Amino acid sequence: MPATLIAVATALALAAPAHAKVIPVAAGENAQARLQEALILAEPGDVVELGAGRFTLTDGLSLDVTGVTVRGAGMDATVLDFTGQKGAGEGLLVTSDEVTLRDFAVENTKGDGIKSKGADNIVYYRVRVTWTGGPKETNGAYGIYPVSSTGVLVDGCKVSGASDAGIYVGQSKAITVRYNYVEQSVAGIEIENSRDALVTGNLVTRNTGGILVFDLPNLPVMGGGNVVIRDNLVVGNDTPNFAPKGNIVAGVRRGTGVMVMANDGVMVGRNQFDGNPTTSIMVVSYPLAFADARYNPAPRNVLIGGNRFGRDGYDPQLPGAATLLTAFGGSLPPVLWDGLGDPPKAVDLVNGKALSLNLPKQGAGAEQAKPAPFRLPDSVPMPPAPGASQAVEPRAPAALDLRIQ
Fold first, then answer.
1. With b meaning 16 or more CB within 10 Å and e meaning fewer, what string describes 90-118?
2. In this structure, what is the dihedral angle of CA atoms 76, 203, 392, 168, given to the nearest 10 degrees?
3. Distance between CA atoms of 227 and 245, rounded to whole angstroms?
């Protein structure tokens, strides 16, 4: 056997444990116990294979075994139905590394749809999370919810009805969110207190806000930034805000395309905007009081350029909206800035400037905001090549050309 073939065979043997197996689970009677048992008994390398059909579940599921794939027959063929869920938790909780979730749906959870916590190299591929009753305050907060992870890929998923964010990635790094369809959620996609994130090729529509990049105080992981938002279709985000009162996203204005808040090093480029009644892009500081000395509430190093705009800003949910509309001939400029922190470095401007709303300083620590010299984000994770989805996995961050083209 040629040496190259021997090397390939050896690598494959090392990659797949000898005991790796497929554990089939069919829909039907006693699905709750049979599915949870499969997730408990699975070993590294195993595939828990969900058959086509509707799994009627009354409690949340959990997986804490490394290297397991949970695979259904398709996001419309295999449905985990939590309509009768008795608890208030998530539908599926993953707390182990190297897990792939693919080709199934989760419906009507009382809490979050799917949550992964501390799960490095987690893959969500062609997963659907839906609240079938439409936008409601009582829906779960997050649809797809990876948090505290290194290596996150959310690819080809569909989410609707989340009362906070359809796809949320928090306190994580090395993130790719691509080719997803998110609708009728308060925030379509949210990147919070995270670094090295690429958000690309997504369709976000009929949400309150399309794509949000936040940094918040008083969290274990601080200093979010180095985020690229590019080549997304951000259209028709006009759903009234239905977040529970007191939630931070309850303040997101209906019709916000992209919002960058208190983040450092964000590029918004080559996206297409249309039908977002408040604005295409909003760059703002954190508006509430805080006592976290580590926190900078102002946006810094935000680069905007190469985007295409349709009819946005025609019904802004802002103080003094009528006066603003009169001044600008019926619609606001595509980039709004609250006048705090660094002004965005932007190509997509009216008369070379963003529209500054000149808001007063807000928050007990607003005076702590310190502008920093402008720099481009230094790296973001590169996704697998198109067509590689059968063996998809997160990749380590690599250099990326961020020049506006």
1. bbbbbbbbbbbbbbbbbbbbbbbbbbbbb
2. -90
3. 28
Beta bridge partners of 195: 173, 225
* 8, amino acid identity: V
CA distance 251 to 29: 44
| Exposure b/e, 60-72, CB count within 10 A at least 16 = b | bbbbebbbbbbbb
Does the structure show a pLDDT above 50 at 378? no
Average pLDDT for residues 222-229, to the nearest whole number? 93
How do the residues of the chain divide into helix, strand and coil, expressed in percent and rounded to 5? 10, 35, 55
The number of CA neighbours under 13 Å toward the Cβ of 176 is 26
Beta bridge partner(s), residue 211: 189, 258
Q: Collapsing DSSP states into helix, strand and coil, what is residue 31?
A: helix
Average pLDDT (324-337) is 87
130: Cα separation from own chain's centroid: 15
Q: Contact, 348 vs 334, CB < 8 A? A: yes
Q: Which of 238, 273, 225 is nearest to 376 (CA)?
A: 225
Write the pLDDT tens digit of every residue in 79-99: 999 999 998 899 999 999 999
pLDDT of residue 167 exceeding 70, the answer is: yes
Q: What is the pLDDT of residues 118-152, one digit of tens each?
A: 999 999 999 999 999 999 999 999 999 999 999 99
* CA separation for the pair 380, 228 (Å, rounded): 7
Percentage of the chain exceeding pLDDT 70: 80
Which tokens hold the place of 333?
Answer: 């400029």
Within 7-83, strands assigned E span 22-25, 47-50, 53-56, 61-63, 69-71, 78-81
For the record, the structure tokens of 394 come out as: 């997160």
Q: What is this structure's pTM?
A: 0.85
